[in-house]
Every structure is written in C-alpha cells, then in structure tokens.
Amino acid sequence: MRLLLVHPSALMYSEIFLRLEPLGLERVAGAARDAGHEVRVVDLQVTGEKELARTFSSFRPDALGVSLNYLANIPEAIAIARAAKRTDPGCFVFFGGHSVSFVAEDVLAQSEGAVDAVVRGEGEPAVPLLLAAVRDGGLETVPGIVTPAGRGPGPRMLHGIDSPVPARDLMRHRRKYFIGELDPCASIEFTRGCPWDCSFCSAWTFYGRSYRKASPEAAGAEMASIQEPNVFIVDDVAFIRPEHGHAIAAELERRRIRKQYYLETRSDVLLRNEEVFQRWTRLGLQYMFLGMEAIDAEGLDLYRKRVTPDDNFRALEVARRLGINVAINLIVDPAWDEERFRLVREFALAVPEIVHLTVMTPYPGTEIWHTESRKLTTRDYRLFDIQHAVVPTTLPLDVFYRELVRTQAVINRKHLGLRTALGALRVLGGNLARGQTNFARMLWKFNRVYNPARQLADHRRPVRYELPLPQHLEIGNRQELYVHSRPAPRREAEQTE
Ligand code: B12
Ligand code: SF4
Q: Locate the Radical SAM core domain: which residues (predicted)?
C-alpha cells in the first residue's frame, strides 16, 4: 500500500530555539516500509502546505497518518484530514502519537468522519497491522485502535527498541533541523520511557512507567549511519543507568564516532552518574537540558520532582565543572505575581546558564489534569503549548504575559550579551559558511515571536475544536492513567529513586 505520513507544523517555541526531526514518525515509517509498503513523509515543521498538497496528488496514498504528539496541533491535523477526504474520500485517514492517545475518542468525534481511526500507544507494532487490516479487513483487531465503533485491543508495546530503524532517508529537508547553534542536528533514541512520576508530565503515563534500553551495538550502528555532525538525544532522562551510557560510549569510541551532543537529564541523575557524563564530554557532549522546574522546595514538592533545590544547584556546579552548557527549565505558575517574576529574573541573571520558562499546563494524561482544582479558562487546543496560561492567572492576563515576555526577553538579552554575541558570531560565521542559516534566523526572530500582544490575541481567536473537560479522578490507582498498561517494572523505578 502507499502510505503518506505527516507531521504538523512547529509550535510557537520551536520557531525560535529549535526544530527537530520527527523521530517517532520516522520509526513508524521504518516499520511500514519493513512490512513492504511504499512510504512518503511530509514534515510541515520544515515545509509548507503546498508540498503536502503536491505530494498527496502525485503519490495518491491509500492511507494517510498524522502524528499528534502535541495537543496544540490537533485542530491543524483535523484540517489536514478533512482536506484529504475532500480530495480522495477513499483514502484511509488515521492519527497517532503521544497526546492523541489520551483523547482519542474526543478527536475522532470532533473530526466528524474525516478521521477513520486513532492508534493509541506506540506506532511501530500497530501500523503494519493497521495497513494489512485496511487492505484485508479486521480493523477492530488492531492493537491500540479506536474507531467510531469503539476501542479494539489495548496497545501493544515493542519488546525492544533496536528496530525498526528510523527512515531518516525519507526526510527531504534534513538541513532544516537544528537546536540552538547545533545546526544542522539529527535526533536519536537510546532509551524509551521514564521511571519517575512527576505530576505535570505524561511521559510516564504513556509508557506505563516502563523503561527500555537500545542495545549498545544497535545505538552505535545507528549513530554511525547519521550524517549530521550534531545529535539531539531524545531520551526523557539520559543515562539513568550509567552502565548503559558507558556501554554506548565504548561502542562510539570503538567506531571512532565524534559528534556534538545535546541531551536532557535530571539533576539527581547527573550527580549520581557524573563519570558517564564526563566520558560523554570527551565524545562531544556540549549541551544539557536540566528540568529543574522550580527554584524552591515547595515548588519541587508540588510537581513531585523528588529532588531538592540543593541537588539542583549542586548539579549545576557539576555541569559547569565538566564544561557542559546547561539550559534550565523553570515552570511558571499562573499564580505568580510581579514580585515572583522579579525574583526569577534575578535568579536567571545571576546564573550563567540559559533559563527557559514554560507555563504550568494541565494536560490529559497527567495527574494534574485530574487534580488541578483551578478551572480551565480555555479549552482551545492551540493554547495548550506551555507558552499560554490556560488556568486563571493571579495577575490580569495582559500583565501576566507582559511579565512573562519581559522575563524571557531579559534572559534572552543576557545570552546575546557581549560575550555571547562574540561567541554567537563565531558560530554564525561557521554555520553561514556551510549554508546553515537556522541559527542566524533564530537570533533575529525573538521579538516577533515572543510578544505579549500576540499571546493575548491568541486567546481571542474563534475556537472550533475544544479539549474535553477533565474528569475529576481520585488518583488511587495510577495505572488508570496509563496508555500502555503492561505492569510497570517496579525494580527499575525503585533502583533509580
Ligand atoms: C524529543 C521531544 C521534543 C523535541 C522533538 C519534537 C519533534 N519534532 O518530534 C523538541 C525538543 C523539539 C520538543 C519540543 C516540544 N515539546 Co516535546 N517532547 C519530546 C519527547 C521528550 C520525546 C519525543 C520523542 O522523540 N520520542 C521518541 C519517539 C520514538 O517517540 P514518539 O515521538 O512519541 O513516537 C511514538 C508514538 O508517539 C507513536 N507515534 C508518533 N507519531 C505517530 C504517528 C502515527 C500516525 C502513529 C500511528 C503513531 C505515532 O509512535 C512512535 C513510535 O513508538 C517527548 C516526551 C516523550 N517521552 O514522548 C516530549 C513531549 C512530546 N513534548 C512536549 C511538549 C509540551 C513540547 C513543546 C510544546 C514544549 C515547549 N516548550 O513549547 C515543544 C513543541 C514542539 C513542536 N511540535 O513544535 C510534551 C507534549 C505535551 C502535550 N500533551 O502536548 C511531551 C509529552 C513532554 C511532556 N512530558 O510533557 N519535544
Ligand atoms: S523525570 Fe522528566 S520525563 Fe520523567 S516523569 Fe519527571 S518530568 Fe516526566
């Protein structure tokens, strides 16, 4: 069969700092291709709707799959589905991905027949079976399937993540993927899942708190096949198990692979496994994203982060000592007042690290979705991108956005200060010489994208599709939140806590 896979366009945040290849969709493409199907991928993060329309008419797909990792992309995905059905009513249209797995029935209903099915959970095991069923019948037996007729069997989980290999060769604009000055940049996955259970996060509920590791040989072979000089490691928390990080490092050393790396991890993991991070700096580890979330104990408790402010500050010292550039994430509580924003600005200016702010947002699939007592002020999917306030703000909304953007701008200016500007010019010169302009564009776009008037105006757009209302749930049995309900491997979680 001919399968066309689509990734929707980039959200606000990605217009500035980063744009990365859709690795999950590439893996789904790999699985479908391994099963003998002809596959094309259109990534709207890096190309326009015209290319999608052109590919749709010339390729004439039997099936169209849209990736919905992000809630904010749901209205766009429904529009794509409607357009596809208008052009070819016989094309089978389906959605899959992280976020849509938690609201599958609602999105199906909202599409009013434009979407034939939603696949919940991991796409690799399901999509070959789905395509066979579209051809031969038996749709209701596909694992993870939800159709207007109801749910089929529960989603199936891959036993290991070594295969299928992502179909990177299908991406037509690879040079457009970047993260900060790592331009161009590819992505890779060493592990899948997270054994922690932070209340604002759905990574653990999606995978039922399980945790799987790629074999070092497969990770090494995949890295060797990557053309780009820079690689983003997509793992939720990198190097939880130090022996795994060391084994992959040994494989890369053996193969003499050296690239520049960006990864995400937790403060306690960095403190506990310092040697493995140190070894990776010799392989090219340059940047690290630390989800600190809050600078005080109260905030950390609220998000059930299970680290202390002291851990966080010690982790920053370790990263500085290792020469790793750190980006810190802090969660902005809509309850913040002007004084709180001022304190955060003070903090951000006092530390040498890059500070990112994301607005606390209850998402389906997270615990706070069910327990957050403040009422949602909007159910417009497009605002659920952690850059907008969707619960009541203490400050008037316009003042909240003014403070938020002011804080982001102060932080941004800090990084474009003299020392950084000189560094940036050096990087910029090198990138431009290689024809890479993503990083350069980013430097000049900040004020256009981060703009309080624009953020406020986003709340006034007419709303066609709304998120379902949260059901208040006493979280006694947390497995009720899981997409993949395989019993959680408690040993992993216990060993890492
Ligand atoms: C890497 C990552 C990113 C990267 C890359 C994004 C990209 N282009 O793909 C970057 C850093 C750019 C990023 C940015 C953001 N991210 Co992000 N990201 C992740 C992360 C950590 C891993 C995703 C990944 O690559 N996993 C590995 C691949 C193999 O898995 P996968 O993509 O999930 O795909 C599998 C399934 O979902 C499914 N699938 C996927 N697509 C499809 C399509 C079909 C048709 C089918 C059937 C199945 C299917 O099958 C795949 C294989 O099993 C996840 C957390 C997580 N654990 O999932 C958060 C996560 C998806 N991100 C999140 C958020 C909030 C964001 C931002 C909005 C953050 C911000 N500050 O603004 C931005 C917006 C990005 C955008 N679209 O513009 C949230 C989503 C929340 C939500 N409910 O909407 C998550 C869940 C993190 C969290 N715990 O809250 N992100
Ligand atoms: S450690 Fe990170 S990925 Fe894991 S549950 Fe907490 S926020 Fe989510």
A: 180-393
Lowest mean pLDDT among 59-68, 78-87, 351-360, 439-448: 439-448
Task: State in Å: Cα 344 to ligand 1 middle.
Answer: 27
Give me the chain's average pLDDT, please.
89
The residues near 403 (Cβ < 8 Å, ≥ 6 apart) are 336, 338, 341, 395
Pick from 69, 73, 94, 187 the residue to mutate for probing ligand 1's pocket: most ligand atoms within 8 Å of its CB.
69
Instruction: Report pLDDT digits (tens) over 350-385.
Output: 888 888 899 999 999 998 888 876 689 999 999 999
The ligand 1 atom at the shortest distance from the C-alpha of residue 71 is 84
Distance CA 66, CA 237 (A): 26
Identify which of 196, 240, 270, 272 to mutate to test ligand 2's pocket (most ligand atoms within 8 A of the CB): 196
Burial state string for 29-56 with b = 16 or more CB within 10 A and e = fewer than 16: bbbbbebebebbbbbbbbbeeeebeebb
Token pair, residue 227, equals 């053309």
pLDDT tens by residue, 154-170 = 999 999 999 999 999 99
All domains in the chain, ordered by first residue: 2-151 (3.40.50.280), 177-481 (3.20.20.70)
How confident is the model at residue 442, as a pLDDT? 60
For ligand 2, atom 2: residue with the closest CA: 236
